[in-house]
Design a protein that fits this description.
Layout lengths: L4 H8 L3 H16 L5 E2 L11 H12 L15 H13 L11 E4 L1 H13 L5 E6 L4 H8 L3 E6 L8 H7 L4 E7 L11 H18 L4 E5 L22 E6 L12 E5 L6 H14 L7 H8 L8 H17 L12 E2 L8 H9 L3 E2 L1 E2 L9 E4 L4 H16 L2
Parallel strand pairs: 1-10, 3-4, 3-5, 5-6, 6-7
Antiparallel strand pairs: 2-8, 7-8, 9-12, 11-12
Helix pairs in contact: 3-10, 4-10, 5-9, 7-8
Length: 393
């Protein structure tokens, strides 16, 4: 077999999200797209805002020399300066400079660049269940070992569980707020307690423990005011960001990694991110998208569009009698499965052509995920079909 053994093993454990998405493609071919209710993939159908297309059109007319050539691996200096000013002005990283910002090929690329820069073989990285399943593969890509720590029953952070899990091999913690799949936005009090645990362990071990704050849903929140960034609350931290959700451009693969200027040797860490961007083959983030996002730092999609779908689905799911922690951000619901075997329940839903993702795929059995970045017809048809599934119990 020409394929590496560890890749074959990883492929057998591949994402439930993609498995169900592919099943949905097959069902749509057989029954027609309008008769299949696909809630699997977080692929926004909401088109980018007008400002994005205006910036794209403006860029297409430019004939300045060099705007599509190679650049520093970290990205276009003017773009990084604009992002640094924004992060500093928002109070996330006061005083951050462009030298501490590295443009990335989406958040997935940013996480891989960061992990490559940080990990020695055998280092452990904490991930908090429920979690985005690709974290497992990203960590193993770079010789690390994932260490799963549970959150509480309401998906809030559990500082005691973290303290019990942190040992001398832990190099970093990945934290995702608002969280995929639960939609939970970790409150400031929980984040403060979490960071106190990290600070105590850093003192005990005499070395940094890095927070990798994965924030692609940072703007997609339903409360008032900007959410607290975990990266802002712990000195040894990196923010990993993507415009995939905030501008509804996941296919454009554009984001950044920002190093907290209070970190131990932030310059050395930024230099390592620059280097790993090159050697992982990204070379640099897409030039056109860098120029565009620099003009759109204050622009986001219409969050109320998602809020309306969240409210409709939350009400319907609760009317069905399912246990649910209403999401405070993202475009996901994560109800408790009416069947303790979440995989069995998801397979039952397939009989009514409803495609869901089992919680087992996110490290939390007994739940399932509904992705509501879909059209109204899918939501209304899916609600009716889910009622039929539950009526068959």
């Amino acid at each position: 077999m020409p394929v590496a053994n560890h890749i074959l093993e990883a492929m057998t454990k591949a994402s439930w999200i993609r498995k169900m998405f592919e099943k949905g493609t097959e069902l749509k071919r057989i029954h027609g797209a309008g008769n299949v209710f696909d809630f699997t993939l977080g692929n926004p159908i909401l088109e980018p805002p007008k400002e994005f297309f205006d910036a794209l059109a403006e860029l297409s007319r430019l004939r300045e020399e060099g705007i599509h050539r190679y650049m520093p691996n970290a990205g276009i200096p003017a773009v990084r300066e604009a992002i640094a000013r924004r992060l500093s002005g928002d109070g996330v990283f006061p005083g951050i400079s462009a030298n501490h910002v590295v443009m990335s090929v989406g958040a997935g690329g940013g996480l891989n660049v960061a992990l490559k820069a940080l990990l020695n073989p055998g280092d452990q990285v904490v991930i908090l269940a429920p979690y985005f399943v690709e974290y497992m593969f990203y960590i193993r890509n770079h010789g690390g070992e994932p260490l799963v720590v549970e959150t509480k029953a309401d998906f809030d952070l559990d500082p005691q569980a973290l303290a019990a899990a942190l040992g001398p091999k832990v190099k970093a913690v990945i934290i995702n707020s608002p969280n995929n799949p639960s939609g939970r936005l970790y409150p400031r009090s929980s984040l403060d307690a979490f960071c106190r645990v990290l600070a105590a362990k850093e003192k005990e071990f005499g070395r940094p423990i890095y927070v990798l704050s994965d924030e692609p849903y940072r703007e997609l929140v339903y409360g008032k005011g900007a959410p607290p960034s975990p990266a802002a609350l712990h000195p040894n931290s990196l923010m990993i960001y993507s415009w995939s959700k905030s501008l509804s451009v996941p296919g454009e693969r554009i984001g950044y990694v920002a190093v907290n200027p209070k970190a131990d040797t932030p310059g050395a860490l930024a230099d390592a991110l620059n280097f790993t961007t090159r050697i992982l083959g990204f070379v640099n983030a897409p030039a056109s998208m860098q120029w565009i996002v620099a003009k759109l730092l204050a622009v986001t999609i219409d969050v109320d569009w998602y809020r309306a779908r969240r409210d409709r689905l939350v009400a319907a799911v609760q009317e069905m009698g399912l246990d649910l922690v209403p999401p405070e951000g993202t475009f996901y619901l994560f109800p408790r499965s009416p069947d303790p075997d979440d995989v069995a329940f998801v397979n039952r839903a397939l009989e009514e052509r409803v495609l869901l993702v089992p919680g087992s795929g996110f490290g939390r059995k007994g739940f399932f995920r509904i992705c509501y970045c879909v059209d109204d017809a899918t939501i209304e048809g899916g609600i009716k079909a889910l009622r039929r599934v539950l009526a068959k119990k």
